[in-house]
Amino acid sequence: MTKKIAVVGASGRMGKLALDLIEASQDLSVFAALDSKSELSEVLGADLIFDVTRLDVSAAVVAFAQANSIPVVVGTSGWSAEKLSTIDADGSAVVVIPNFSVGSMLATRFAAEAAKFFDSIEIVEAHHAGKADSPSGTAVRTAELIAASRGNTPLVPGVGQEARGEVVGGVSIHSLRLEGVSAKQSVLLGGNSELLTISHETTSVAAYSAGILASMRFALSAQGVHIGLESVLG
Predict the structure, then answer these.
(1) Which residue positions in the chain have pLDDT lower than 50?
(2) CATH number of 3-100+206-233
(3) Catalytic residue among 127, 174, 200, 226
(4) Active-site residue among 131, 174, 200, 226?
(5) Known catalytic residue at 226
């Protein structure tokens, strides 16, 4: 028996990809395809909600999902650690994935590990011109994990210098929005006479396919709040 998936944000790049993946699968089926202005009551009866909208809409989707005991996978950007702390951890499953790319997950993991050995770290991320938010959710998550890995030991950002980007967890993040780019992130770690760069790039949304399907299948049987693709794949 196939599981019924409601996609909220179905008209966007990620929403369209999710619909294609669901329709091509053997164990999932499309229950509803909603945009950001649709009534959330249209998801009632679904086994899972897949949310790729805007942060304000996403927060309402998560609240509605938990109120109706429907698992939800959140691919919407902008869920900071502070925002994530507002989710009811005892409610139905909420799986928040800042980036569905396996390569991106690994690059972030490598950067967090390397950050223990460097005191000068900055992030440069570039996305397509149509991306509405900056910095990206992936960059914010990377900065937060770097800070946690270092035990919140202070870094050396350009405090007070507007051109040095937004500071998250002591890490300066520089955001580029350009035509001709899908998604790219580089973490630059500076040391004594050396520079380590950990970089990852996707060239199309197809890179997110495996992560999206894995996250949906995981959420269908999960409980509580899970953050990042690493929580899905282990």
Answers:
(1) none
(2) 3.40.50.720
(3) 127
(4) 131
(5) no
Give the per-residue pLDDT at 152. 74
pLDDT for the residue 98: 92
Q: pLDDT at position 159, please? A: 60
Active site residue 131: yes
How confident is the model at residue 165, as a pLDDT?
87
Q: Which of 222, 83, 54 is nearest to 141 (CA)?
A: 83
pLDDT at 78: 85
Check if the beta carbon of residue 33 is closer than 8 Å to that of residue 39. Answer: no
Say whether 74 sits in a helix, a strand or coil. Answer: strand
CATH 3.40.50.720 segments of the chain:
3-100+206-233
**Cα 12 vs. chain centroid, distance in angstroms?**
15
Helix (H) or strand (E) holding 197: strand 194-202
Query: What is the topology classification, in CATH, of domain 102-203?
Result: Dihydrodipicolinate Reductase; domain 2 (3.30.360)
1-32 b/e with 16+ CB inside 10 Å = b?
Answer: eebbbbbbbbbbbbbbbbbebbeeeeebebbb
Structure tokens at 40: 């959330």
Q: Specify whether the CB–CB gap between 97 and 74 falls below 8 A.
A: yes
Q: How far apart are CA 26 and CA 24, in angstroms?
A: 7
Q: Kindly state the tokens that stand for 83.
A: 């925002």
Read off the tokens for 7: 């996609």
The pLDDT of residue 179 = 95
According to CATH, where is 3.30.360.10 located in the chain?
Answer: 102-203
Which tokens hold the place of 45? 């009866």
DSSP 152: T
